[in-house]
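Progress report, Aim 2. The chain analyzed during this reporting quarter is listed below.
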Amino acid sequence: MKNTFKGKIIEIRETKDITDKFQKRQFVVEDSYEGTYGPVVNTALFTLTQERCSLIDQFKVGDKVTLNFDVDGRPWKKDNEFVLKDGEKVYFMDLKAWNIEAVEQASPQDPAAENPDPASSPAPAPTPTPDTEPVQAQQPESEEDDLPF
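Predicted structure tokens for the chain:
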């Protein structure tokens, strides 16, 4: 299953060497939209591992990106036993990014950027001319209105 997230980078962390054979790098992406009860902001921490740590190098804070990721969830175990907190098992979840792409932004001079789909814009109202008058439906004078009000 392909998971996708689109938003603005708000933080990029340094690469950390966890062991001599494993490294990871984290970054934060934020997305916001107008929800039913007001603005909704989703802020997510993503992780890059090993050779993918450099995928974020071409981006900076403020860049808009689309990324693909996998969800990695697992229980916390110590000495092969589940760790409990308040009587419940503790779980970790990681969002592991594996692809990052810049969101294409149209230039302001591009007229298609302002209205990319002409069919979606309303047609301009026709301008009346002296030889055209609005046509109004008229009822014949001999028929009575049968409406109760």
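Helices lie at 111-114. The mean pLDDT is 80. These observations will guide the mutagenesis work planned for the next reporting period.
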